[in-house]
Amino acid sequence: MLPRHMQRLGRDWVAHWxxxxxxxxxxxxxxxxxxxxxxxxxxxxxxADFTVNWRPPHFFGPWRPPHFFGPWRPPHFFGPWRPPxxxxxQPDNFTHNxxxxxxxxxxxxxxxxxSSKRRRHSGQNDVCSPNEEISSSNQNEAVCLSxxxxxxxxxxxxxxxxxxxxxxxxCHHSKTMKILEDKQIDQNNAEDKGKxxxxxxxYNILSQNLLEDNSHLYKHCRQPVLMWGYRFxxxxxxxxxxxxxxxxxxxxxxxxxxxxxxxxxEYLGYHCEYxxxxxxxxxxxxxxxxxxxxxxxxxxxxxxxxxxxxxxDRDNVGLVLLLQxxxxxxxxxxxxxxxTHLLYNPRRGDIKLTQLAMLLAEIASVAHQKDGRFCPIxxxxxxxxxxxxxxxxxxxxxxxxxxxxxIGKVSxxxxxxxxxxxxxxxxxxxxxGISQSCVYEVQQQRQEENTGEEKKEAKLEHTEEIIIAxxxxxxxxxxxxxxxxxxxxxxPESGVPEVTTCHSRSAVTVDYIFYSAAKDDSAAQPGAEDxxxxxxxxxxRLSLLTEQDLWTVNGLPNEHNSSDHLSLLAQFRLIEE
Length: 577
Fold this sequence. Notes:
InterPro entries: ANGEL2_N, CCR4/nocturin_mRNA_transcr, Endo/exonu/phosph_ase_sf, Endo/exonuclease/phosphatase. It contains nine helices and 22 strands. It has helices at residues 115-121, 208-213, 228-242, 254-267, 349-367, 390-397, 441-450, 453-472, 547-551; strands at residues 13-15, 50-52, 167-171, 176-180, 196-204, 246-253, 270-276, 283-290, 294-303, 317-325, 335-341, 377-382, 399-401, 476-478, 483-485, 498-499, 501-502, 507-508, 511-516, 535-542, 545-546, 568-575. The N and C termini lie far apart (84 Å).
């Protein structure tokens, strides 16, 4: 006869073990509290006495006893403990309080994928050939994905699912791109010539809170790989292996940042700046840089919410840092690094463009130098817009005539956009204080007041031209940065689109690294006037993957990549002019 406290299944209970054993309360619906379309996953491991304090999540309302209450019977798995077959990580990788609730009880095991994906990619299992893979000792090798051989056994799960991403190095003399294993090749003694090389990563790490709120996007995933206790070690391992000098992270959950992410990155030699969203969702953007490479000049958070402007009712944010290189540069050298996560809603292109204009205005303020030019600029983030869309084109080309543009076509996220309302002219009200040139109007006036008479007259003439142009073409936006994208977004040989995110609903490119390119940068886009004090040359980048590549490993997240986004990584050379 079991003690009474062992009979209270579904309540707080304590189990005492006379000999060290391992026990896992991991059974599915039949041995746990059931709610419609949900099931609990609350694993606990111990080698001695342990306590399970289980309560339903607060949003399920008053608790009701499960229908199977009655005389308690020992679960079928009592006896010597064995890990369930759907576990594929070691216990030391797993946190004691991890739990996750999914909206669909009929989960697919790894290897399964949404039916639309199976139909689209059946029979296609492309992975890198051995001669294209990067050595595991190389820090530039990605931690990404791959498909296991068909004859591989189940118990080798820790070695499967790994597709390695190549380092693509730009040869500027021949204006060609080479796939190399070592990004330090052909650096031409940059440090000896007063040039400064550094790497930048942009990575949406997938907030656990957002993952659980949008569980329908991850029906293709196995439950264990969605737990934060499993995901964070993978994310940290990838960051450590790629070893970027600057990290721009999106969807960084506040509690995880304070307790785990920031301490871990500080241990690796980074200084971290963070800006949380202004609403109820507890995630935000972080920029972390190696203190061995940069000094912090200023940190400037950007809040896109304005209580007095109805258009700006969303809680997205941005963060802009001004960094000073520590070596081989003149004292006034600086680099402006910006990070943001724009609104997702495909039908609100008006909000997206306004948020972008606010970010560009802050960048113009931070990067502006005393001589009237800008320091080199790098803009990273999840822009929730696809290549070729009006928003993307505005960033790269520096201008956009939005007259007659439907609000749902701004980001290009939907093939058949539902937002048919035409953008208003102007998009944002004058009370925002940002001109159609995406600069602060007050800041522009102050700059004019602080310059000499000769420059002042020239700027006044230029301002008058802008005002006249604005009156003539009121629907035209512009900015004065010469920006290029690190990635070309299509495979050069086949033209197949690269993707930066892949889940049950879509696989597209929405993440970018834009930079102010040097005139002789063969990877850069031509155009724009010379308004920069110094510039950047793209030396190399970590290759992206296609949708087909990612579905060979069951999409994202998976066992080796613990976000629904891929990391972006680029190497730059700062050139002083």
